[in-house]
């Protein structure tokens, strides 16, 4: 019983404090900044999903992990400490996500409008009750889009939307301007690695079914209208409306029909916040009660000398420049910073659209060869989504740790930029009209340099023997995956070859330097 009390006191209470502070604190800030005062706008998915997912990791790692390590956990089958942190993260993230959905729906005001033309004269709200209206279905605007998904762009999302002008009365059909639009949208995901003919067939079938459903829909069958949150997709609705020639709109208002009582808009979301949190809390409690204390670590902890301190430094180790690892963290930080800026600009998270990547400097032959040569460089600091940048930064981190101490700061950054530009140029030569982004060309350039150093024996024999086959398998696997489609393999090959040649040129000089410096031997 004493041991159970110790676990509750030292570990479980700390977990509960962190969880309640994050769930309650973030929900309050969400309400204060984005609902009460509406200080600025953030992509809905970022606000509701990705910030709640990212928030728990650092406090859990800093304040909870040292206490989890007081437990005696066998690690023969994996890192059980990481598993405990992962479950704790889910215990916080899932209730936080549900709480944000509840908050948005619960705080949304219902405004009654006698006619739609009054919507511009009132403060914007989330919901509207419209008394007098006319839907001009003859001026329906159809919006179609394709969004590539995934690290290798191996998925595709078809998106079709039917937008109907909302007027005060039937006589307003003679007018060329419309304030608000009723929206019906349809989505379907598909495989992007198939042939263009197969994709075209899937899309035509999707659009046919969507159009059939829309034509048969009773558009008058709704109780109230909902103004959607700000996200990547509804930005395109506005562009589609502004470009159409049927009905003019300067600042269109998009509204979705809702056919359920207003009082039921939150459903059981609030209950699920507590149910989800309670279930995970029970699971996590059982997890910490099963293992025994590591008595040696427990004694040190009680004396104020825990064995596993400064977890913050461990986390930040790969992001902070230092003596022999200076340039690599800076490059990683720069790539991550650009990704975060794009994310908070409302461009997405899981994946970015090709048109947005082009606007930010992606490599695209029709643009690049017509004077925009800076795209050869800027494209190497852009990424297509979360999985894309995560995979590239892990690869950069690994090769940077191995290569930077031997190359030095100036050589590393020059090789990185040079091979990145040459990789982009190879992609330009290979593809006629492909939007290309990513640091992988430059990273493959560094792997090419490292491979040349291993083959020319710049590194000690034992070091070369242990890593050569691993590097060859890594490079071969990634190039092979590139041939499956959806990946810019031209940039990979261009970066690898140029890096290998640079490595061969530098190898003799570095061997001489190594002979003069015993620390490298």
Describe the structure in your own words:
There is one protein chain. With 521 residues, the protein is of the alpha+beta class. The protein folds into 3 domains: 148 residues; 150 residues, no CATH class; 204 residues, Up-down Bundle (Rhomboid-like fold). The protein is built from 18 helices and 8 strands. Strands 1, 2, 3, 4, 5, 6, 7 and 8 form an 8-stranded mixed beta sheet that branches. β4 and β5 form a beta hairpin. The mean pLDDT is 84.
Q: Quick one: biggest sheet? A: 8 strands, mixed
Estimate the strand proportion: 5-15%
Which CATH-level-2 architecture of the largest domain? Answer: Up-down Bundle
Helix content: 55-70%
User: Per CATH, what is the topology of the largest domain?
Assistant: Rhomboid-like fold
The domain count comes to: 3
Radius of gyration: 28 Å
Global structural class:
alpha+beta
- The CATH class of the largest domain: Mainly Alpha
Overall pLDDT metric: 84
Indicate the low-confidence ranges by residue numbers: none
CA distance, first residue to last residue: 56 Å
Order of helices and strands: HHHHEEEEEEHEHEHHHHHHHHHHHH
General form: flat
Give the count of helical stretches: 18
Number of strands: 8
CATH superfamily of the largest domain: Rhomboid-like
């Amino acid at each position: 019983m004493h041991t159970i009390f110790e676990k509750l006191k030292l570990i479980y209470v700390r977990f509960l404090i962190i969880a309640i502070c994050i769930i309650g604190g973030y929900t309050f800030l969400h309400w204060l900044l984005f609902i009460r005062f509406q200080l600025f706008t953030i992509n809905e998915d970022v606000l509701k999903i990705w910030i709640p997912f990212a928030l728990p990791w650092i406090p859990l790692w800093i304040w909870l992990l040292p206490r989890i390590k007081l437990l005696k956990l066998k690690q023969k089958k994996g890192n059980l400490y990481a598993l405990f942190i992962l479950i704790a993260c889910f215990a916080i993230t899932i209730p936080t996500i549900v709480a944000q959905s509840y908050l948005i729906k619960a705080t949304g005001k219902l405004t009654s409008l006698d006619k739609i033309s009054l919507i511009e004269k009132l403060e914007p709200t989330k919901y509207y009750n419209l008394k007098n209206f006319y839907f001009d279905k003859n001026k329906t605007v159809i919006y179609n889009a394709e969004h590539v998904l995934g690290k290798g762009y191996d998925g595709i999302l078809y998106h079709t939307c039917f937008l109907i002008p909302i007027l005060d009365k039937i006589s307003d059909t003679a007018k060329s301007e419309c304030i608000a639009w009723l929206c019906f949208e349809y989505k379907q995901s598909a495989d992007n690695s198939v042939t263009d003919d197969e994709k075209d067939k899937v899309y035509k079938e999707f659009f046919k079914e969507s159009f059939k459903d829309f034509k048969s829909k009773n558009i008058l069958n709704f109780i109230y209208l909902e103004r959607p949150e700000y996200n990547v997709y509804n930005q395109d609705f506005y562009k589609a409306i502004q470009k159409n020639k049927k009905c003019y709109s300067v600042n269109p208002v998009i509204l979705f029909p809702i056919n359920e009582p207003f009082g039921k808009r939150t459903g059981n979301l609030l209950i699920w916040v507590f149910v989800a949190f309670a279930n995970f809390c029970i699971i996590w409690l059982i997890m910490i009660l099963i293992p025994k204390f590591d008595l040696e670590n427990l004694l040190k902890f009680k004396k104020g000398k825990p064995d596993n301190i400064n977890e913050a430094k461990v986390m930040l180790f790969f992001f902070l420049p230092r003596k022999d690892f200076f340039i690599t963290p800076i490059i990683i930080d720069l790539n991550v910073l650009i990704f975060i800026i794009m994310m908070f600009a409302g461009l997405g998270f899981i994946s970015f659209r090709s048109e947005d990547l082009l606007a930010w400097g992606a490599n695209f032959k029709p643009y690049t060869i017509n004077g925009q040569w800076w795209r050869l460089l800027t494209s190497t600091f852009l990424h297509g989504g979360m999985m894309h940048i995560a995979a590239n930064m892990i690869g950069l981190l690994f090769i940077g740790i191995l290569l930077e101490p031997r190359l030095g700061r100036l050589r590393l950054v020059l090789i990185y930029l040079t091979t990145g530009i040459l990789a982009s140029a190879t992609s330009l030569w290979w593809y006629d009209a492909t939007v290309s982004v990513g640091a992988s060309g430059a990273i493959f350039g560094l792997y090419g340099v490292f491979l040349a150093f291993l083959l020319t024996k710049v590194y000690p024999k034992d070091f070369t023997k242990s890593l050569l086959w691993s590097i060859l398998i890594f490079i071969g696997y990634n190039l092979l995956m590139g041939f499956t489609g959806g990946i810019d393999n031209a940039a990979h090959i261009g970066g690898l070859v140029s890096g290998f040649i640079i490595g061969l040129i530098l190898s003799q000089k570095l061997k001489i330097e190594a002979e003069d410096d015993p620390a490298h031997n």
